């Protein structure tokens, strides 16, 4: 992705935090992370986030999903002595549909990103509205999509090691390079 | 404390969360915890909280301090294999003054609760405004007070074991009994 597109997405994310009353320091706002997974279609598959703290014991992040934006299917494997990341998603604003392993829900509400259908394989749906949360255990495949108005989500978890995440789509790069423009 | 006073404080806390746009489920609102530390002077020394998640790996809570309300000085000791709770306080609304071990600040902004002066012994001041945060390592004594308008604080931490906290004031009970009325 081009630097100018990233900056645009950062500003849009900062505006959303502002609208829902989540305050960031200037430094945090300038460090908003845009995860586009190397797919070059941020609106469809991507995630915007601020990491508040990531110590060797716990992690807390604030996530933004644009309307119908999808964080692609992945899991958090064991890393050394760590059994893998356990994470709790708490919806703060908007709506999010979360999909995990288990019995597939008959008519899911999310729209699987077109062209990436083979890389979405778990369909047990959990709908989270503001104030609702769900905890995902290590090793469980999951993906999630913002509702029609998008979503803001607090993530509380054990230590985050994003570079170890395993995505179902082999074309995904968690840390792709930026094109300067 | 009497049940009726507790219920009043719970409702006041729920109203504050509502005002600052923090959404709770009905179950969470009905489980708001009022910590009065057995001191029977909640307005002066106390804390209101909701625990979102407390797994064997991490914990997240939302705290409320009424105006000038103080959470008394304490520390989090090692418990078995756990080196003690590490906690990050993130101010969401209002203002909080946090005091930790280290060089005493010349003119602290908080008012030490009258009559409890002997039980406040650390005075290195950190002021947190919305969007600002601070991480306290295990074993470090700390206390904190809400500003003139009170405060709402997110706490991200390792596993919480409140019953093991060590308070400087030997008269404090973390889990005192409620008087039915
Ligand atoms: Zn995940
Ligand atoms: Zn503490």
TrEMBL record, chains A, B:
State which Enzyme Commission number(s) the record gives: 5.3.1.15
Q: Which residues form a coiled coil?
A: none
Quote the protein name from its UniProt record: D-lyxose ketol-isomerase
Q: Which GO terms describe its molecular function?
A: D-lyxose ketol-isomerase activity; metal ion binding
Arranged from A to Z, the UniProt key words for this protein are: Carbohydrate metabolism, Isomerase, Manganese, Metal-binding
State the reactions this protein catalyses. Answer: D-lyxose = D-xylulose
Top-level taxon in the UniProt lineage: Bacteria
Family assignment? Belongs to the D-lyxose ketol-isomerase family.
